[in-house]
Design goal:
Elements: E1 14-16, E2 31-34, E3 37-43, H1 59-76, E4 84-91, H2 94-106, E5 116-121, E6 131-138
Parallel strand pairs: 4-5
Antiparallel strand pairs: 1-2, 2-3, 3-6, 4-6
Helix pairs in contact: 1-2
């Protein structure tokens, strides 16, 4: 293949900490942009205004906080929910909380624009959260 037929190379990755988004609970960036791709770190149900505040009670409230935190990160780098192409959801009480998490999660996306998704039951999450969600977004 000649150089003229090779796909264009992506610029180097850019690492982002978004003002106003929750302080990370571990050493990571809120998101990393590589060309048109955005990889958003899993968000916890923490209050972006007060990291030490107790987590919301129940799966619905925690899922809402997680999704709101993800929106903060997306918007902080010029993306939105319409750009999300893939999600991973981690929940600690799968049988109990799967329906409630799904109801809240679904409400954030436009009809016909649901990203591909994997949902995984896990034994524990940071701060004893019930749910964590991460995204991959794409904007050409």
């Amino acid at each position: 293949m000649s150089d003229s037929t090779l796909p264009p190379a992506f610029p180097p990755p850019s690492f982002h900490m978004v003002p106003g988004a929750p302080t990370p609970v571990a050493p990571f960036s809120h998101c990393v942009k590589v060309g048109p791709w955005l990889f958003v770190t899993g968000q916890m149900p923490t209050d972006p205004a007060d990291d030490s505040a107790p987590l919301p009670e129940g799966i619905e409230a925690q899922t809402r906080r997680v999704m709101d935190n993800l929106v903060l990160v997306l918007e902080g780098v010029g993306y939105g929910l319409a750009d999300v192409v893939q999600a991973r959801v981690y929940i600690t009480e799968f049988k109990r909380d799967y329906p409630g998490m799904n109801a809240v999660y679904r409400s954030y996306f436009a009809e016909g624009r649901l990203p591909a998704r994997t949902c995984i039951g896990v034994t524990g999450l940071a701060r004893d959260a019930l749910v964590e969600v991460d995204f991959v977004a794409y904007r050409p």
